[in-house]
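just leaving the lab so this will be short. what follows is a protein written twice so to speak, once as letters and once as structure tokens for the fold. can you read through it and tell me how you think this chain folds. thanks a lot i owe you, the record is right below.

___
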Amino acid sequence: MTTRSTGIHQRDLVGQQSVDHERRVDIGRLKGERLARLQAEIDRADLGAALLYDPINIRYATGTRDASSGFGLRFYHRYALVPRTGRVILFGSFNDALAGEATIDVREARTWDFFPCGRNVEEAARRWAADLRATLDGLGLVRERIGIDRLDFTAFEALRAQPIRLADARVPIERARAIKTPDVPTLIRHACAVAYVAIFATRGAIRPVATENDLWAAFTGPNNLPVR
């Protein structure tokens, strides 16, 4: 009985704070409009889909974060396939599956990086490319041009060997991003305000006895600065 009651309680929760004194960003609308803009540009570029590896582009298309931070900028471990219509396929991890986005289909990712694959880099790339081709076939896009934002030589050759028709995805992505949806200017102003508060706190913490760690503590959280 307790478990059932808890489930009902969690289902009925609509937010931690309801306010009437300010307008807040509609995150669901933000994600939906960004994806719609990107898919429109993919269609305009005559692409069947876009294969994204840049974490910033994945964030724009899916609204999800890369928990590994800078790891994704160097290694090819997480990627998204954005068809010109329909659900995005995010090849990621358990954390991505927990996101539960209605517009995202989360699947297990494959990689060919040397760190996990060692001497099997080329074989791993061939398996990754075959898996991607099978995914495209399932979407009815295997004969379409597929845009890519960034890949290394090994993966590029593996896709060409399938063969998969490749094209550039960076221009459609930048065209989509160039025109801001209504919620984006609010987020930009918010980010600038956060940066201003952090810089102001750091400037106020500068003194002859302050260490680099002291200043970093002030930058990341003004209340963390030790009193001397």
Remarks:
- The mean pLDDT is 85.
- Residues 30 and 183 are 6 Å apart (CA to CA).
- DSSP finds eleven helices and six strands in the chain.
- Residues 184-205 form the longest helix (22 residues).
